[in-house]
Design goal:
alpha/beta, Quinone Oxidoreductase, Chain A, domain 1, Rossmann fold, six-stranded parallel beta sheet, 12 helices, 17 strands
């Protein structure tokens, strides 16, 4: 069976690619792609050129839902017609990181849209290993499949928060008002954060942040964050960097209270260096955490949380697969929050 897709060959170079599907394994599942989000990493690879870890040419797309079109003879728990959301990677579950529950750091893991073909296509084949470890989850009843395509975002944000010492009642600073920041905001509200200050520059996104529960949505083009923190006595327990703005990352580390945590969630360009005052960092017992992708537990938990979130409100525009280049152009518009492709 031929799959119609678009593959990235290099910087701003997406080409149509028709390819044969892999042979169905006994435990494999074939999905007809319904909705696929354009991720920030997809945008970086398109506009800046793919990093060496990408197997070129590669079909991008790892935020998606699909309808089960075919199941292997031994695939358990799924049937034709089920609508499912898909985890971002396929771990081996045998290496040392996997044994520690860190399957997002699997030594031989395959990342969808990086190492194996993603979902900017009309069909996606979920290999037997992916299905067996829990890389597919049924979309909960009543949840819009478009919103469910963003399960991967929720899972990665949940994974990031779990790296920190966040507790009920904590005060949080979120730097960045994009889809990642807005997903963190929703999760932290569910988890019992008291005050959440979100910073950004784009009015419609900041308004959405207020509607989703931000205590303050601060336009840092008009208001200085450091001055705000000083005036309000705001010393967050946790600061989350949801936009790759290095000066803001360094400022956030200064602003968190003694004993507080800084989560470097957003992807940084290779070689990015951050200035650290080791004296102040050490004697204030602050903590810095990195976070990448999500593990299977995070993914399954995120799918269960979908009915309590408003991820569909993040979707601002959709494009058919044939207009994929136009979709990437449109996703760069500051007014866009999340751009979707619907094959």
């Amino acid at each position: 069976m031929k799959v119609h897709s678009f593959a990235l060959h290099g910087k701003e170079d997406l080409r149509q690619l028709d390819r044969e599907l892999p042979a169905m394994e006994p435990g494999g599942v074939l999905l007809r792609v319904n909705h696929c989000g354009i991720c920030g990493s997809d945008m970086r690879m398109f506009y800046e050129g793919p990093s060496p870890r990408y197997n070129l040419p590669i079909v991008l797309g790892h935020e998606f839902t699909g309808t089960v079109a075919e199941v292997g003879a031994n695939a358990k728990g799924f049937k034709v017609g089920d609508v499912v959301t898909v985890g971002p990677m396929i771990p081996c579950m045998n290496c040392r990181p996997c044994g520690h529950g860190q399957d997002n750091l699997c030594e031989s893991g395959q990342v969808i849209g990086t190492h194996i073909a993603g979902a900017m296509a009309d069909y996606f084949y979920a290999p037997e290993q992916m299905v067996s470890v829990g890389g597919l989850a049924k979309v909960p009843e009543g949840v819009d499949p478009r919103a469910a395509a963003l399960t991967e975002i929720v899972a990665c944000c949940l994974h990031g928060i779990r790296q920190t010492s966040f507790q009920l009642g904590d005060k949080v600073l979120i730097v960045g008002e994009g889809p990642i920041g807005l997903a963190h905001l929703q999760l932290l509200r569910l988890m019992g954060a008291s005050d959440i200050v979100m910073t950004g520059l784009i009015a419609n996104r900041l308004k959405l942040a207020e509607e989703m529960g931000a205590t303050v949505a601060l336009d840092v083009g008009k208001h200085d964050l450091q001055q705000y923190a000083r005036d309000k006595g705001f010393r967050p327990d946790l600061a989350i960097i949801a936009a790759p703005v290095l000066p803001a990352s360094e400022l956030a580390l200064d602003l968190i209270r003694p004993g507080g945590s800084l989560l470097l969630f957003s992807g940084y360009p290779y070689g990015t260096k951050m200035t650290l005052d080791a004296y102040r960092f050490h004697y204030a017992e602050k903590h810095i955490h990195g976070s990448i992708d999500c593990n299977i537990r995070d993914f399954q938990n995120a799918a269960e949380l979908l009915p309590r979130l408003q991820m569909g409100r993040l979707i601002t525009q959709t494009f058919p697969l044939k207009d994929i280049v136009q979709a990437f152009r449109a996703a760069r518009d500051p007014q866009a929050v999340k751009t979707m492709i619907e094959p």
